[in-house]
Amino acid sequence: MRETATASDPSLTLPRAPERPGASARGVAFVMSLRPRQWIKNVLVAAAPLAAGRLWDVPVLLDTLVALGAFVAASAGGYLINDARDVERDRAHPSKRRRPIARGDVPLVLAYVAGVVLQLAAIGVPALTGYGNLAICVGVYVSCTTLYNNWLKHEPVVDLALVAAGFLLRSMAGGLAAGIPLSRWFLIVAAFGSLFMVAGKRYSEIVTVGDDQGTRPSLREYSASYLRFVWSTSAGVVIAAYCLWAFEVADERAGETTAPWTSLSIAPLVLGLLKYARDVDRGHTGEPEEIVLRDKVLLALGGAWLVLFGLGVLHV
User: What's the pTM?
Assistant: First the structure.
């Protein structure tokens, strides 16, 4: 008579199927795929209202927050689509392979669908709530990221311009949402400051992973000396334009009793750029927001600049 096998019989133990991550783990992975640490870039939407000295006006502050929300959604959607398209290349990258989509924690279909929905919402919500100029700005940003992700990501020079345009559009968004005119000095500083950060990021990639790792084909078209020329030239334009603006403001207020705060703000700005450039030259700026957040000296210089700049635009 055949004996009935018991569950405790080790000879009959079957291999367990790999456990799928729980709902909470999948949710965390999805949130991380939105790259919340990089949302700090979107704080640039406050640049134009701050430069105009109107950021703390309640209506302007609310408009700026609307711009911030729109760019958070648009950029998060772009990150999802970009990571889904580059999943195989990211798996060959020493750090990008740890991203949730590259690890397989977020399905590709979900990444694509959520990315498109977020970008459409980032344009549609402002358009339907009276922020037409902001909707156009976000639409141009989404168009640039779409061109970048699908066709021009690996085109040398063009890729620098498109990524820099993303920073520039962020810096314009708050002013467009609040109806604040954008000065020529502001646009020059924002444009070349954006190019400075992007060229520095590419230079850092060449220093850390080289130009033959297959992670970004456009790096093969660059040399370290060329990218150093781009970010050093951009930094020079930023400093020159900022100095011209600061001295112009100081001359306009020469008859007032206020201290020359805008002129004084040149010092921490230049020192901050030089400190950041040192980190760029050492290949420590793969992501600009990371170096800014972990460098205490850079944070202190940024705080000093913000105080002096704020005193200047507020006519204290």
Answer: 0.84
